[in-house]
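REQUEST FORM: STRUCTURE PREDICTION
Request ID: SP-0412
Submitted by: Lab K.M.
Chain count: 1
Length (residues): 475
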Amino acid sequence: MINPTKVANLTARGVARNERQRDKQGPLDVWTNTWDGAVQNEQEFWTDPAEQIRADWDSQMQQVEALGISQWASTSYSDTQDAFIANAEGVGDAAYKIAEADGALPTVGAVFGTLIALEQALSVAFSMIPFPALPAVRVTDMAIGLPHAHMHPPNLIPPNPVPVPLPSAGPVIPIPFISGAATVLINNLPAARCGDMGMGIWCGGYFPMYEIFLGSSSVWLEGARAARIGIDITKHCIFTTPKPSDPPVGPMIGTTVSASPNTIIGGFPLPSLTSMAAGQAFKAMFKGLGKLRGLMRSADDVAEEVGEAAGRPGAFSPPKGFEDEITEQFAVPEQVLGHRELLDIAQSVNPNNGTINCGHIIDAVDGRLSGRSPNQITLTMGDDGNWQDISRRFDASAFVNSSYEEAFEYVSQKEGRRALLGIQHQGGGSHVVVLANNKGAVGIVEGQGGGSVFTSPQAARNAYPPNDKVMVAIY
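STATUS: Completed
RESULT:
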């Protein structure tokens, strides 16, 4: 039985030695090590290809046998206690470095070092869970994500309104300071770890990067969990959700499919708790900055933006003086933000700019407003049912004759309230939209014609034919 205390002490000495070695290393070594390792491995393979294939096959068979339940390893309770004490001392040493740090960047580095040391200590308990050792992943090893789509070629090729999902496949890539171990080599290549990144070029996304999301609970390489084949899942298209405007459609997870032929690593799979905490902190910070920016924007700027959006060719045109009405109605900053959110939904919910899909647009608009599907878009075109079908789908009341004034009056009484507006054209045909109260901002979310928001009965009468019959369904 391996003594975890000794392992912890050896690890601590290894980290110290690694830090000393880092002083001799340059930031681009992860690139040079990747190139040199790939060249060396290729030369070794072609020296005796048959022997290399046989040796790799034997190693793979031994790893398959190690997956048997009788081969699963775990750490005893007493040894886990010893390992936790050893790691707790490491937390104290790391925390002491915060006080010794001189300057902002060294202090930030010391704080993250302390968080990582704390995470290592907390991870010791997971070593008690039996789990098989699996082949170690290296830079240049491949990962494949489940098929998903994007709303542009090669996934979406008009006139087909539905995108074709494609798998996200590609290698783990070396990026100095970010992806790949600079000093830990496995089969001559930098080791891959939890948080390292890859390029999955086949999914069709504009920036198809993926991240190794899980890693070993008990093996750490340069401050990150070691990655293994199969079990340590990957998250794909991580820079396209929810913005920029390239939202993936479908599952965005996968796994690594190639790894070292003769190096295996144990430990229960866990995400990087430090990275998740830092990510939430940065998310909250940017959200707060975004809200502050929104509050600082004047209602006049918002009105101008709405007027420009609604005045584009093919879009619904607002009435003259619409900007003044917006300025008056949205003088409260929270209402300004609410209106901007409605406008963002109207302009992004119908990416194909379909014109016979209003019943499907209201599904996507409601999905976003309710929070059920924050990035939902309209993929389907064509018939979506009659008035009764729509009422049943939304669990709403039957459509009853009404007016724009009555509808706006009802929705404006309660924040978060929504209703369906049915518009029966006098010459035949019909239209349906969502009227919503978002943070006190009331408006009709029109997803066709480029996307617009109509914030008053007068604006609605100017946008739609004046003699049309107006109906309302409450849900």
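NOTES: Confidence is low (pLDDT under 50) at residues 1-24, 302-332.
Reviewed by: T.R.
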